[in-house]
Design goal:
The chain is α+β, with helices and mostly antiparallel strands. It is built from five helices and seven strands. α1 packs across α2. The protein is globular and about 35 Å long.
Length: about 150
C-alpha cells in the first residue's frame, strides 16, 4: 500500500517539478505559487515520493482540492487514488463534511478516478482553464467516504 506523507513549503521545489511533469505548460504552478499555497491557513499537502502530490484546503466544514499531480511515469499505479483517499481522510479529520474539486471536462482518467471515489457532478465552469477548456465541479460527501474512526 502507498502511504502519502505530509509536505510543507520546504518541499515546494520538488512539488513544482512534479507539477511541471504532470501538466500542460499553461497549467503549471511554479515553486513560489506552491510555497504560497502551503503557507495559507487550512492548506495541507500530501505526497508520494517522486510520484505525485495533492494540495487541499479546508475552510469551515468544506474542503477543496487545489491540485492533484501524478507524474506521467507513475500513472496507472494507484498513486492518484491513494493521494485522494488520504486527502479525503485528512480533510474529514480537519472538520470538512464535503470536498470539492474541478476537473477538465475531457479528462476521462480523472473523471473515472473521482467517480470511483464517490464524487458527483454539481457544476460547470465554462472556459475555466488557460487554453479555454471547461471544468466540471465535483463534490464528495466526506461523512460517507471516510471511516468513522478517521473523523
Amino acid at each position: 500500500m502507498i502511504v502519502p506523507t505530509p509536505v510543507t513549503r520546504v518541499h515546494a521545489a520538488t512539488l513544482a517539478a512534479l507539477h511541471e511533469a504532470a501538466f500542460d505548460p499553461s497549467d503549471v504552478w511554479p515553486e513560489d505559487a506552491i510555497a504560497t499555497q502551503l503557507a495559507q491557513p487550512g492548506v495541507f499537502g500530501l505526497a508520494v515520493a517522486a510520484d505525485g502530490f495533492v494540495l487541499a484546503r479546508v475552510a469551515a466544514d468544506e474542503a477543496e482540492i487545489l491540485t492533484l499531480a501524478v507524474a506521467p511515469w507513475s500513472r496507472r499505479r494507484g498513486i492518484g487514488s491513494q493521494l485522494m483517499r488520504a486527502a479525503m481522510t485528512q480533510a474529514a479529520v480537519n472538520g470538512a463534511a464535503h470536498l470539492f474539486l474541478e476537473v477538465a471536462s475531457d479528462n476521462l482518467a480523472g473523471l473515472a478516478l473521482y467517480d470511483s471515489l464517490g464524487f458527483s457532478r454539481v457544476g460547470l465552469r465554462k472556459r475555466y482553464y488557460a487554453l479555454g477548456g471547461d471544468a466540471l465541479v465535483l463534490r464528495a460527501d466526506l461523512r460517507a467516504a471516510t471511516p468513522a474512526a478517521a473523523r
